[in-house]
Amino acid sequence: MAPVAVVIGAPGAGKTTIGGLVAGLLGVPFVDTDAIIEAEAGKPIPEIFIDDGEDAFRALERSAIATALTEFSGVLALGGGAILHEGTRDLLKQHTVVYLSVELSDAVKRVGLGTGRPLLAMNPRATLKYLLDQRRPLYSSVATHTIATDNRDPSDIADEVAGLLK
Ligand SMILES: Nc1ncnc2c1ncn2[C@@H]1O[C@H](COP(=O)(O)OP(=O)(O)O)[C@@H](O)[C@H]1O
Ligand SMILES: O=C(O)C1=C[C@@H](OP(=O)(O)O)[C@@H](O)[C@H](O)C1
Ligand SMILES: [Mg+2]
């Protein structure tokens, strides 16, 4: 078994939102690895970062992704930092990977004050700029499809993604 598609991109790209809409359009299940991690840890992501640290979160993330890539057959959304791990990028090369790209200005608007995203808690705009610069080449390196999301409605983006996957 393998996911119908894996959705990647920066925080605020719309992975969780669009992934759910695409799954609905295709009539398949949706899961977000952040939700799997929270269920396994028994606490929300900001608490995992505070209590256990980012490295512990990344370890849970690697394991949740490796399992989902072999056992889940719907639309799978990843967290924005999942592609930082080389082993995860290697695993993704066997899959249909939809990269939702976003420019800084739309990402900033969408994440707001960064609530629920511990990496963005201090200075969302400056941190997002750094993350986007660091990660764009990594997202592109594993993407089989790239969709720009700026100034577009989620339903419009989801229609395009579902169309690509049919
Ligand atoms: N294309 C879009 N246009 C406007 N707002 C969006 C769009 N996609 C997502 N959002 C909003 O931006 C926020 C972040 O979306 P989310 O799906 O959680 O992104 P991600 O999982 O990539 O971090 C949510 O409030 C969501 O409703
Ligand atoms: O960019 C990151 O490193 C992270 C993004 C988050 O997911 P979203 O991209 O869905 O916000 C979540 O996995 C965690 O807070 C770390
Ligand atoms: Mg998300």
UniProtKB/TrEMBL annotation:
Reaction it catalyzes: shikimate + ATP = 3-phosphoshikimate + ADP + H(+)
GO molecular function: ATP binding; magnesium ion binding; shikimate kinase activity
GO biological process: amino acid biosynthetic process; aromatic amino acid family biosynthetic process; chorismate biosynthetic process
Residues annotated to bind Mg(2+): 16
Record's keyword annotation contains Amino-acid biosynthesis: yes
Main location (coarse class): cytoplasm
Family the UniProt entry places it in: Belongs to the shikimate kinase family.
Keyword Metal-binding: yes
Lineage: Bacteria, Bacillati, Actinomycetota, Actinomycetes, Micromonosporales
A Pfam short name: SKI
Involved pathway(s): Metabolic intermediate biosynthesis; chorismate biosynthesis; chorismate from D-erythrose 4-phosphate and phosphoenolpyruvate: step 5/7
Binding site for ATP: 12-17, 117, 152
Function: Catalyzes the specific phosphorylation of the 3-hydroxyl group of shikimic acid using ATP as a cosubstrate.
Note describing how the cofactor binds: Binds 1 Mg(2+) ion per subunit.
Cofactor dependency: Mg(2+)
Family matches, as PANTHER family: SHIKIMATE KINASE (PTHR21087), SHIKIMATE KINASE 1, CHLOROPLASTIC (PTHR21087:SF16)
Keyword annotations of the record: Amino-acid biosynthesis, Aromatic amino acid biosynthesis, ATP-binding, Cytoplasm, Kinase, Magnesium, Metal-binding, Nucleotide-binding, Transferase
Compartments where found: Cytoplasm
Gene field: aroK
Species annotation: Paractinoplanes tereljensis
The name this protein goes by in its record: Shikimate kinase
Positions with a binding annotation for substrate: 34, 58, 80, 135
GO CC field: cytosol
PROSITE patterns found in the cross-reference section: SHIKIMATE_KINASE
